[in-house]
User: Fold these one by one.
Assistant:
Number 1:
Amino acid sequence: MNVGQLAPDAPPTVTSARARHQVEVAPTVAPGFQGETAGPARGESPGRQTGETPSVTPSVWDAVSGVIRGRRSNLRVDPQRPISAELIGRLLELGCWAPNHKRTHPWRFAVVTGAGRARLGETAAAGLTALGLGDPALLEKTRQKYLRAPVVIVVGSTAHPQPHLHRENHDAVAAGVQNILLGATALGLASFWSTGAPAEVPEVKRLVGLQPQDEIVAFIYLGWPLEEAPPAQRSAPVVTLIDS
Ligand SMILES: Cc1cc2nc3c(=O)[nH]c(=O)nc-3n(C[C@H](O)[C@H](O)[C@H](O)COP(=O)(O)O)c2cc1C
């Protein structure tokens, strides 16, 4: 889809978005492979245990790490406040920079805004009904849920006749979804990756321009945040070290 063709809206400038939602870039370091106790704790300076002088200038590492750690699933957004086609286009471009074995270019995007969100919900609910899935409450929730954000990007992965490349296409698209989420975070946008039963509905695939064998990898909700998501925890990496 050429997002340049989307109806122009009233875009908040990137500059103002950054100013309002700038990600903190305090110097941090990854825990390292030596075990949980060997490396500095998250948020600690790398120099604290090694005696090295910590960098005081935010580095590329700090910026990248800050965006990755700052990304949260967040649907507390203003559904009325549009996101410009220009910003959406930038995010979709980032999505296509993910690694992609065999350069199959498996990414497919549908940008759903305005009344399209209700149409997506109706299509999903009708498709679930046809599949015999969903009680009335779930169907009603399905009709409404895409209205929670001003933009929903449906991300598809093209099918491949070879099973391992089909799976790798899906993996590449999932990596592309993360690129989009991180780009959104850097722009000050809230984002939320969702899947669920609608991803399996043939009518939804048709609506978003996919073939039946293609896969929907994500419904990405995007919006300007009304509130930050609560801080999250992550467990330490589980690592098997093989060095001899
Ligand atoms: C493949 C995938 C599918 C997801 N689908 C859903 C979903 O259908 N509903 C939902 O609430 N969250 C969904 N999530 C979001 C996760 O629940 C969320 O990432 C997790 O709770 C961690 O929170 P965080 O993203 O703020 O770190 C999905 C995440 C991934 C990677």
Note: The helical segments are 14-21, 47-50, 60-70, 85-95, 115-130, 136-145, 163-187, 202-207.
Number 2:
Amino acid sequence: MKLKSASVLKAAIAIALSVTAYQASAATATYDPSTGTLDIPVVDVLNGAQATTISAKLQLQGDKLVLASFDNAAAVSGKRVTFDGATNALHFPSVKVLGSDTELYAKLKIVPGSNPIAFTVDQLEPTVFSACPDFSAQGPISGTCVLSGELNKDVALTANTTWILSGGVYVGGDRANSATLTINPGTELIGESGLDFLYIRRGSKIMAEGTPDQPIVMTGPSELSRGEWGGLVIAGNAPVNGCAEGVLPCEVAFEAITTETYGGSDIADNSGLLKYVQIKYAGYAVRPNEELNGLTMLGVGAGTVVDFVQVHQGLDDGIEMFGGTVQAKHLVLTGNGDDSLDWGSGWRGKAQYVLIKQADDDGDLGIEADNNPDNNDASPRSQPLLANMTLLGSQGIETEGAKFRRGTGVNVINSVFSGFAGYCVKLDGAATYINGGSSVTALSGELTIEGTYVNCVTNFSDKENTGFTTAEWFAAQAGNVSGDPLLNGIFPAVGSPLVDQGVTITDNFADNTNYIGAFKDANDKWADEWTVTDSLK
Ligand SMILES: [Ca+2]
Ligand SMILES: [Ca+2]
Ligand SMILES: [Ca+2]
Ligand SMILES: [Ca+2]
């Protein structure tokens, strides 16, 4: 339910007051209806990967809650109120209403330009389950609701309910009957088989906005093995390749679900937001070599926000990009069964702060990268910018770091490849080398690696090389080193050459870091708390 005014807010509280018979949990804020004061002992104010902690009081004035006072406060662990500066949203895991047993989840949004800062109420929901909303069906046990078919109106999935995906759950029609699916912090979605998946169609949006203490979780029923459910698929209107020459805009059928189409001409297309999201135990082979991945992004555009997303123990790839321009930060890809990051069909997006960690029991490449298998020179050509990656291989199985093939371009900056049983980096296929340049003294700029450490059993490999070898290409560019990066787990150890190193990054999306790898040092905690327990060890 979306609430816009104080009268509606009060009505909602009155309705919520009637909800009884539940176990009250510790409130994170208290609302006094007699004074209109909302008292918040702890607010984490997020600024990218950084957080500061304050206490605050909000005062109801008309239809808004106005910031009346705030002060510094000590950081706490556990459930807490979070303000996300990137989305201007203030999330309350629970607000206790004085004089009652009521606790409510609340989401407030800043009034743009307000001074003093004022908020409107975006959501107010009981923290306990009462009944399944009309867009869902009652699940097998109380507190569970089943989603199926196509959602054609804006709905919110709340944390008071466990949401069960039954079959393909589609948000919107294809560029028709479009809808926005909002998913609240701490909400859990469960698929029960490989054909249970969530699919956001072109023109629709997913707004999955978790918080560090309350990530959104998409998982399987037993959380024991890869492939317990399908995964998350997002389709957008950004450019892709794979059409016949001259067909613009290019639109392509998804290999795994061939009735679905993706791609278009909108570089800045916006499919919504994924923030503090875990996708685990997903993946399904619909046919051999045509799979649902943990997160599949089909022609997703640069207007989409992807930040703090983990794909853990997927059956196929962690994230697979089919073209598009989507840009992401803070990705954690752990224990995936095929490639951790896979792209093709002309992906021209970006990613920074990427941790890839392979398991000992399964896995293929850290990165498997194509332009297009049928036409290695298809346009637009894949050429993502990848900065501050840490790729950790396994000695348990024959895994490799990155294979750049089938004409792909790439710009790798300030990254580290370590511990792969096979090679760290391979260039593969004549079209890939030719796109990269005629020789290492005449590189095109479309296939580059800089400020990067490699430390594998075999650092480099080649296939059908022309003009240069991967080793020559690596050695010819700035700041690259073959040697021990001195890692301690995922972090640089004391004395590591990764700290205070790297080349300058000049980009409007990627930060200019002065270090190599996903983490600045052992105190860089961006992957703490919201990720799957023990998955980084
Ligand atoms: Ca795949
Ligand atoms: Ca793959
Ligand atoms: Ca593979
Ligand atoms: Ca692939």
Note: Residues 1-25 have pLDDT under 50 and may be disordered.
